[in-house]
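Lab notebook, bench 4. Continuing the backlog of folding jobs that were queued last week. Each job is logged with the same field layout so the records can be merged later without manual cleanup. Today's entry covers MobA-like NTP transferase domain-containing protein, a 254-residue chain. Filled in by technician R.K.

JOB TYPE: sequence-to-structure
TARGET: MobA-like NTP transferase domain-containing protein
LENGTH: 254
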Amino acid sequence: MALDAVVLAGGPPDAVAALEPGAANKAFVRVGGVPLVARTIEGLRASSRIDRIVVVAPPSAAAHPALACASEVRGDGARIIESLRSGMAGFTENAMVVVAASDLPALDAGAVDEFVDAAVARDLDVAYACLERRYHLDRYPEFPHTWARMREGRFCGGGIVALRPAVLPRLSMVLDALGDARKSPLRLAGLFGWDMLARFAVGRLSIADAEARASRLLGARVGAVRCTHAEIALNVDRAADVALVNARFAAAAG
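JOB STATUS: finished
OUTPUT FIELD FOLLOWS
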């Protein structure tokens, strides 16, 4: 079964975009001579698990050659949840849709296939890709990441999720609540519970417990998909990452 996909390439320019004059945002910055968003689309296209690809981007970039392989380009929103609504508009409410960040320079068929197969097999409403540290260090040791210490090991988030459009209203409410509470430990504890925050702080929170709490918050089946392909989590967050990616792809090309 092939799933539709949404690539989020919206938002204003940032420090990464400043490296390339004229880039609408970092999605359009070239690494190894190819815009990041084009590399992401290429990775999705390489997978037989992906059907239609909708890209959400600033209207000023709608005709950019980097988006030539997208099935459709739609305008972005002021906030990421609004861009997500734009990208998923008109999709079947209960059909799983893959949502990808636009800054995944190494995304390939193996990474996409592994994630989609696991998400579909678990019949989740929201599936979140995560990667254990050892897989990243084996493949891309020069790239820094932020790691969450869980009972099972240290993990980072991947650049892909899968979700059903039916969960968007509740997801929007939860994201708003998290945004309001992000600087208040008391309010965060109200959302997650003191017990969960305490266990996370000392690295004793299990993935299963985190999934259960997220499922209760969203009123949906939420699960972390433990991936083994490091390409799913290699992204470009900072200007310094561009040089690292250029060096990696230049080395690969040589």
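OBSERVATION: Residues 3 and 252 are 30 Å apart (CA to CA).
SIGNED: R.K.
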